[in-house]
Structure formats: structure tokens, C-alpha cells
Amino acid sequence: MIPRYQTVLFFVLLAASIIMGAVLWQLRDRAEQRRLQAQASTPTQAPQVAPAVQATLMVANDVDDSMQERIFSLPLPPSENARARAILGKLLDLYAAPGATHPVEGGSSAIAQVFLKPVNVSATGGARGRRAANAAAAPEMAVVNLTSAFAASHPSGIETESLTVLSICATLHANLPQVTEVRFLVDGQERLTLAGHADLTRTYLTAEAAPTAVVGAAP
């Protein structure tokens, strides 16, 4: 025989468990309703898209060793470093496209990084310093970090390598006039040449980057 007090205790505990379960279920249901109401009341935000901005690309042409000015409307980020990288990425995408006037593999992925830093005009000295000071109120140097895969696959030759380097410099200056100098790195390190010819140890002046060649009208 089960003692009476144990039977009573059993039913009391059973009733308490049922009540607690019901309370927890109601609390869970209310929390879920509040979450759904909060989601419904939160306005849906459209994803932020960078505004389209006109960008000038100086596109190389191997036929006559010239550069042609072409205007594109591109979604560019506000950061100048990111903007420079995006513009150069578009330039190299053109070179990687079928039928390119300056065929080079790699596309935008060839640009690992671009960052700008102030130019020390007093340290440049002489005519070079004066040119930099006259080019912009606050001249800057663009450091373009290319990937080793791009350098390894780039066609070898003084003309084709020089056109790649000069078109990058001219494109930077066309969109960021304060950029008066450009240095090149490959995977974050100095490299003697791009593909055996174009010197990557030197500092390029953007004012001297554009050759005296045919400049075509934008399409």
C-alpha cells in the first residue's frame, strides 16, 4: 500500500509540473510574438550601392603604342584608395577581355591593393619637386600592389610592359589629379621589372606617363 501522503505529494508535484510547463509555453509563445512584431515593424533597408561616377580610363593600344581616353560610369566607393583600386580593376578587365587592344591576362584580380600617401615635396628636390608641387595643392603618391600571378603571365616586351605601366599611371592621374607619382610593388615586395623589361624600381611621374600619341574620343 502506498501511503496517503505520498499519493497526495505525487499529485501535487504533477500539478505543479503541468502548471510550470503551461507557464513556460506561454512565455515562449509571447517571446516569439514579440520577435515577429519587431521584425514586422522594422523597415526593410535596401542594400547600399555605391553611386555611379564617371571614370576616365587611359586604355593602351598595341597597334600604335598609344593610349585612348575612354569614359565609363562606374559604381565607385567613397574611399580614394578603394576608388583607385576599382578604377584600375576596370582598366585591367578591359585588357583581359576578348579582342582587347592591349591583351593582358589577370583582370581586376591583378590589383591586390592601391594606397595613397603624401609626397614629400622638399625631399624630391629640383625640377621634379617643382612639378609635383605645381600639379596639385597636396600631391600624393599612389602605391600599386600587383599580384605575382599577373606579373608572371604578363607578355614580355619593353613596349607592352611600358604601356601597361604608363596606362595605369595615366589612369590614376586622370581620376585623381593629386596623384603625381606612382610606385609599383608585386605581392607587397619590390620587383626589378614587370616581365623582364619595364623598370618597377623607379618612381613614375604621372605628368610624364601619357605618351605623345593618338588620344581617341570616348565611345
What do you see in this structure?
The chain is an alpha+beta fold and 219 residues long. The chain folds into 2 domains: 1-45; 52-208, no CATH class. It contains 6 helices and 6 strands. The chain has helices at residues 4-41, 80-96, 121-124, 126-135, 148-153, 158-175; strands at 52-61, 66-75, 111-118, 140-146, 179-186, 204-205. Strands 3-4-5-6 form a 4-stranded mixed β-sheet. β1 (52-61) and β2 (66-75) form a beta hairpin. α2 runs antiparallel to α6. It is elongated and about 110 Å long. Mean pLDDT is 84; it is low at 132-136 and 212-219.
Features:
219 residues, 2 domains, four-stranded mixed beta sheet
Count the domains: 2
What would the principal axes of the Cα set say about the shape? Answer: elongated
The portion of residues assigned to helices is 40-55%
Work out the number of β strands: 6
